[in-house]
# Entry
Amino acid sequence: MSTKAKTEPDSAPILKSASIKKFGLFTDETLEFSPGLNVFIGRNGCGKSHLLKLLYTLIKECGEVPSNGSVLEAEKLENRLAKKLAGVFRPENDRIGRLVQRGKGRTSAEVSASFTNGRKCGFKLSSLDKISAAKGNVGTLEDAAFLPSREVLALFEGFVAAYEKRELSFDETFRDICLALSEKQLRGKRDGMLDELVKPLEEEIRGKVSLEGGRFYVTGADGSIEAHLVSEGWRKLAALAQLITNGTLTKNGFLFWDEPEANLNPTMVVQLSDTLLRLANQGIQIFVVSHDYLLTTRLSLASEYPAAIPEDQRCPVKFFGLARRGSDEKGVTVSSGSKLAELTDNPILAEYAALYDYEGSLFEKTQTQD
Amino acid sequence: MPTPLKVENQLFEFGDEWSIAFKYDDTDFHQKEATKLQGMIDGTPHSTKAVDVVGLHNVSGLLLLEAKDFRGHRIANKQRINHEVSVEVAVKARDTLAALVGAARKPVSEFPSIQLATALNQGNDVAVVLWLEDDTFSDERRTKVSLGTLNQRLKVLLTSLNVRTFVLSSAVPNRINHMAVTNLPGAGQPNP
# Structure
């Protein structure tokens, strides 16, 4: 079960902004988030996945823990944060000080997140692994789910037990998502909103998702098929359907998804895009890392033509372009905008444009060869 | 050097490397003979189409060029840009190639029909180029992606003709050697 209490709709805060200093590749950046969909793009090695994991860590650990006798309640926030950072980032020997941006002598990272209720949460982390958390709490947060780029339904069976025995080298996001997936589906008839979100996914994977005996199945017209026997793309959508139907993804909740497009063919990417927009429309704050031209462009079009897209897909969208500074400078720069075109650097678009240039150069050569 | 050609408020100028360049769709051959092939099929009217320009480069070979200037007409032409323009250009290229074969068989003297037909021989390159202008082509990278996507569509449509295709615009670098394109007064403005 989740350690966080479910709250009344509209009462739970969501993430408003984050200030990150000397953490990983982030030298000094403040990011203002959309309450809907946040899309991070950039070349490999720009810190996108680290950013996603950092935000996830803050959301998971900064929310107020209810008085339900859970073990975590007794721990101080900094201990929880230290443990989560170690689990999510997996630094060598759990030395979370290695996450601090490298520099001469001892340095410290400083991370702070602001929420829509005006409260803040954050920590300071020294390169010697010492962590101190800011005072106060942000109030109760809804659940957060982190979907790694690798799909998880196929490795679900027995994963958590093996992870707890430290038999696996996966990071903690895999354990967390397996726990979230194992939550039982909500009882009773699906309400309209839930059905609208899940039905298109079930149509795409041609069946419903079920968990029986510790194993996931996709049950459709051809009967039940073990999840690990269906395509990886289908498994990704099936996992999302499970998180919706079991209530993990709920209003004012958080979804983090690293490269959701991986192993999806373009038609499924279209379905994925529409689903992300619908989820954000229902009040789930979403953070996505993507390298995909089709996905990012469709999301940008949703932002550019809000009145022209289906009403259930309307939501605020914000893009963040991460780019390495020049070779003589450390860290990354971040540009942002509600449309892809507003970003200073869009490597996906640049590569597609370069493809046109490449074909143009070949076309041109045919005119100069004897 | 071929005479500069005015197409859709743009001037196409060809260097000495071009032995032939003319407004094919203005020729009597196209307007009076090729277009005789027209009529109704299943209740839908069909007629022979033609590209704007036919040219012959000393090295690169035969060029069929169609110019479209949608500037100032974006709303009216939006659907055509997205869906129909590649089909329209492909059909025009197909009909023009077929007509050029017929012109050489006659032969037609209005333009060097036999020389053009010889350029169609196996081993010679034939290029079909769409020169497209649009109000949305302000960002060069996005324009390249749009033009590249359109070219992929055009390439598929013209697979059977074994031609090279490319889509160009004044918003991106010109890839046709020894040919320059300039805007004439009124270019980019809606027609009165």
Remarks:
- Residues 74-105 of chain B form the longest helix (32 residues).
- The two ends of chain B are 33 Å apart (CA to CA).
- The beta strands of chain B are 5-7, 10-14, 18-23, 38-41, 44-47, 53-57, 61-69, 126-133, 164-168, 179-183.
- Chain B has one domain: 5-183.
